[in-house]
Automatic annotation (TrEMBL):
<keyword id="KW-0949">S-adenosyl-L-methionine</keyword>
<feature type="binding site">
    <location>
        <position position="15"/>
    </location>
    <ligand>
        <name>S-adenosyl-L-methionine</name>
    </ligand>
</feature>
<dbReference type="InterPro" id="IPR023165">
    <property type="entry name" value="rRNA_Ade_diMease-like_C"/>
</dbReference>
<feature type="binding site">
    <location>
        <position position="13"/>
    </location>
    <ligand>
        <name>S-adenosyl-L-methionine</name>
    </ligand>
</feature>
<dbReference type="Pfam" id="PF00398">
    <property type="entry name" value="RrnaAD"/>
</dbReference>
<dbReference type="InterPro" id="IPR011530">
    <property type="entry name" value="rRNA_adenine_dimethylase"/>
</dbReference>
<comment type="similarity">
    <text>Belongs to the class I-like SAM-binding methyltransferase superfamily. rRNA adenine N(6)-methyltransferase family. RsmA subfamily.</text>
</comment>
<feature type="binding site">
    <location>
        <position position="40"/>
    </location>
    <ligand>
        <name>S-adenosyl-L-methionine</name>
    </ligand>
</feature>
<dbReference type="GO" id="GO:0052908">
    <property type="term" value="F:16S rRNA (adenine(1518)-N(6)/adenine(1519)-N(6))-dimethyltransferase activity"/>
</dbReference>
<comment type="function">
    <text>Specifically dimethylates two adjacent adenosines (A1518 and A1519) in the loop of a conserved hairpin near the 3'-end of 16S rRNA in the 30S particle. May play a critical role in biogenesis of 30S subunits.</text>
</comment>
<feature type="binding site">
    <location>
        <position position="85"/>
    </location>
    <ligand>
        <name>S-adenosyl-L-methionine</name>
    </ligand>
</feature>
<protein>
    <recommendedName>
        <fullName>Ribosomal RNA small subunit methyltransferase A</fullName>
        <ecNumber>2.1.1.182</ecNumber>
    </recommendedName>
</protein>
<feature type="binding site">
    <location>
        <position position="61"/>
    </location>
    <ligand>
        <name>S-adenosyl-L-methionine</name>
    </ligand>
</feature>
<keyword id="KW-0698">rRNA processing</keyword>
<feature type="binding site">
    <location>
        <position position="103"/>
    </location>
    <ligand>
        <name>S-adenosyl-L-methionine</name>
    </ligand>
</feature>
<keyword id="KW-0489">Methyltransferase</keyword>
<dbReference type="InterPro" id="IPR020598">
    <property type="entry name" value="rRNA_Ade_methylase_Trfase_N"/>
</dbReference>
Length: 253
């Protein structure tokens, strides 16, 4: 019997559709030369596609019952199961070129991605299942209604793309929203250096503190000596491009 109260607490919706599972595994790609970290393996629907081929596979799971289930399921096979809340996990301890994958709890997906962005980890790529609305924000462009703080913060470090949508019927407990499977690939030349990300993230928060006001209004206390006659200061935060945000950020450094 499904414990719906616990599953809701942890944001757990398990994939059961074999076609969708195969599509996800194929999109991620199995490479026995690369390390993997899976976030929230649940009962191992995605893990099954990697466990026999990947030589270095770790999974972080908050639910102790799932840890016990996976230990029994995989036995002596090569998997490092970590019983921990992903929001307290140290990404900086991960090896170079790690592929980070998972079905992210939709209520904390943004926090997880910001945590990865702020860490010193250098992943090969990220592959996540997220709520479609959140995927739209990650992949938005300037001027789009979905262009937001997470769009900017993630796109100065990664190239984001939505690979395909996932219908609620693919899960054992059908979510009330459509899901998307996304890929995030590190930029060869990040627009903002990782070392500056924490400061840049705070700067973007200030820029978006009032979306309906111009940047001049939002930044007047931060950029006291700026030339507010410049054209981009007259725009709202959702109209500003990544390069323009980079230039504005330089003014406060």
């Amino acid at each position: 019997m499904i414990d719906r109260k616990k599953r809701k607490k942890f944001g757990q919706n398990y994939l059961i559709d074999p076609v969708t599972i195969h599509k996800i595994i194929k999109s991620i790609g199995v490479d026995n030369q690369l390390p993997y970290l899976e976030i929230g393996p649940g009962h191992g629907a995605i893990t099954d596609g990697f466990i026999e081929l990947a030589n270095d596979y770790s999974a972080v799971e908050i639910d102790h019952e799932n840890i016990e289930f996976l230990l029994k399921k995989y036995g002596d096979q090569q998997i490092n199961l970590i019983s921990q809340d992903i929001l307290s996990f140290n990404f900086e301890g991960l090896p170079e070129n790690v592929k980070i994958i998972g079905n992210l709890p939709y209520n904390i997906a943004s926090q997880i991605i910001i945590k990865i962005l702020a860490s010193k980890v250098n992943p090969k790529d990220l592959h996540f299942m997220v709520q479609k609305e959140f995927a739209d924000r990650l992949c938005a462009k300037p001027g789009d209604k979905s262009w937001s703080k997470i769009s900017i913060k993630s796109q100065v470090i990664f190239f984001n793309e939505s690979l395909f949508e996932i219908d609620p019927s693919a899960f054992d407990i059908k979510p009330k929203v459509t899901s998307s499977f996304i890929r995030m690939t590190p930029l060869k030349n990040p627009i903002v250096k990782k070392a500056d990300f924490h400061s840049f993230s705070k700067f973007i928060d200030v820029c978006f503190q009032s979306k309906r006001k111009s940047l001049k209004n939002n930044l007047k206390d931060l950029l006291i000596d700026a030339d507010f006659s410049l054209e981009h200061f007259k725009k709202r935060p959702e109209e500003i491009t990544l390069d323009q945000y980079k230039e504005l950020f330089k003014m406060i450094k």
